[in-house]
Amino acid sequence: MRFDELDFEPSLIDGIDAMNFQEMTPVQEKAMPVVMEGKDLIACAQTGTGKTAAYLLPLINQLLRKPSKDKVRAIIMAPTRELAQQIDQQLEGISYFVPISSVAVYGGNDASAYETQKQAMKNGTDIIIATPGRLISHIKMENADFSGVEHFILDEADRMLDMGFYDDIISIVKTLPVKRQTVMFSATMPAKIKKLAETILHEPEFVNVAISKPAEGITQQAYICYETQKRMLVQKLLANNSVDKTIIFSSSKQNVKDVYNALLRMKIKVGAMHSDLDQASRDEVMLDYKSGKINVIVATDILSRGIDIEGIDMVINYDVPHDAEDYIHRIGRTARANRQGVGITFVSEKDQDRFGMIEQFLEKEIEKMPLPEELGEGPAYEPRLKGKGGRRRQNNNRRQTAKGKQPNANSHKPNADGKHNNKPKADGNESQEPKANRQHFKPNANGDESNKPRRYNNHHRRFNNRNRGNNNSQQGDLAKDDSVG
User: Fold this and answer.
1) How many DSSP H helices and E strands does the chain contain?
2) CA 77, CA 164: separation in Å to the nearest integer?
3) Relative orientation angle of helices 352-362 and 324-331, to the nearest 10 degrees
4) Residue 297: enclosing H or E segment and its boundaries?
5) What is the DSSP string of 417-449?
6) Is 296:246 a contact under the CB 8 Å cutoff?
7) Spatial separation of the C-alpha atoms in residues 384 and 443, rounded to whole Å
8) Buried/exposed code over 20-42 (b: 16+ C-beta within 10 A; e: otherwise)
9) Are 246 and 316 in contact (CB under 8 A)?
10) C-alpha to C-alpha distance for 379 and 226, rounded to whole angstroms
């Protein structure tokens, strides 16, 4: 289905053409007519399916058909600053030819940005894109008048609940008019999402994008290794590959810092991304990565969702993601828009069961690669799978050895330097906080949410709070940290 087949305003069609939107993705085709009718909606859709445009286009179309009343008319909630920024960027591109104003409201910037956000909400901007913590801060300071809100949209609602924002969302809803349209997008549909939907939505329509596996263009590989072999392994992979852009994911901030420092010593152009960085530092890393000043980012899961960067050739999971959903999100950073890419996972002994469950979910045995010869032998791959009668062995992979050689009788585990003969030491930095149990929906890999460079015209009443220094001298008390990792 084409975008021009829907009843969009002519000025909005101009923006759609400028963004080069032509054929709708499945979630757009299913969700947009519902939103345009003003109905409540709950939609299951993954990052990369075009879900942002699925709610932005009908939202803008509805606002254009009603006179502005100098009050906030729509609120879009996002779990992280990075996703809020990305939504704001896409909104700017789509709304280039229409008289719609917006402001992005998130933490991590300076007092002047806070004041800009405050004035925008008091004076009445059309659309607010906000993280829960910063919006709660403004509400507590009585900076916001939401009596004119007609549309309330939650993007990645499941992630917001994982981050502990349920009470904040309910508090925000209590400040909104009862009569409003509420739209919720979620990658999964666990019990807590259903509970939230029952609380804040009214007779919603339900849209579920077909469950899919990782994109066909992703070559999936795994290295079965000891924890102490990982750092040398990532150095070998980067030294031996001529890929242009790489992201290395780890669930531990300490691992991110350690790997980042190790790669710096190798003279690799690398940046780090984790929640200890202030917003100005994060923005600088992303700008350097997109411009090619650096070609490797070591990051926590702060980059696994909602961030659209073109041309990522390789993703390395320094540790196994918590579940199949997170695995798909991580490796889904590569091979976007029908391109090719590589997704590599390091599987230590303690992560084998979890990786086995991911393989079981994907209904695929991921290729096990031999370790570089100088690293010595890795452990045997023997995950314990539910419903499979205990441990299993994959292939004839009794022990991962260099170049596929079989170990001799005197083989031992490598020591902390990645050498042979000693057992590995515990890292201590790999602890992961367990996430709530989820029912998993596989993402649809079709469709790529593109960013649009900032453009201005005389129609805009633009309130901007981006790229404004560090987070010193902030006003207000953030109720929550709007970052992860």
Assistant:
1) 14, 16
2) 14
3) 80
4) strand 296-299
5) TS-SSSPPPP-S----PPPPP----PPP-----
6) yes
7) 26
8) ebeebbbbbbbbbbbbbeebbbb
9) yes
10) 7
10 Å Cβ neighbour count for 424? 18
Residue 373 has φ and ψ, to the nearest 5°, of: -60, -35
Do 378 and 400 touch, CB atoms closer than 8 A? Answer: yes
Q: What is the pTM of this model?
A: 0.55
Distance of alpha carbon 335 from alpha carbon 58, whole angstroms: 29
| Distances in whole angstroms, Cα of residue 129 to Cα of each of 151, 180, 418 | 12, 17, 47
Provide the residue-wise pLDDT of the chain in tens; the chain has 485 residues. 888 889 999 999 998 988 878 788 888 999 999 999 999 999 987 666 778 999 999 999 999 998 877 899 999 999 998 889 989 988 998 999 999 999 999 987 778 888 999 998 888 899 999 999 999 999 999 888 999 999 999 999 988 998 899 999 999 999 999 999 999 998 878 888 989 999 999 999 999 875 557 878 899 999 999 999 999 999 999 987 777 799 999 988 899 999 999 999 988 999 999 878 888 888 899 899 988 899 999 998 877 765 667 788 899 999 998 777 778 878 988 877 667 899 999 999 999 998 998 898 888 899 999 999 999 999 999 998 655 444 454 443 445 554 444 444 444 444 544 444 444 444 444 334 333 333 433 444 444 444 433 333 333 344 444 343 444 333 333 334 444 33
Q: Using alpha carbons, select from 89, 167, 28, 59 the residue that is nearest to residue 480.
A: 167
| Integer Cα distance of 343 and 334 in angstroms | 8
Q: Six-digit token pair at 225?
A: 């290794």
Which residue's structure tokens are 């084409």?
2
CA distance 98 to 92: 10
Residue whose token pair is 């900032």: 454
Q: Quick check: helix, strand or coil at residue 23?
A: strand
Question: What are 95's two structure tokens?
Answer: 């709304």
Write phi, then psi, for 255 (nearest 5 degrees). -65, -40
Amino acid of residue 87: I
CB 70 within 8 A of CB 446: no
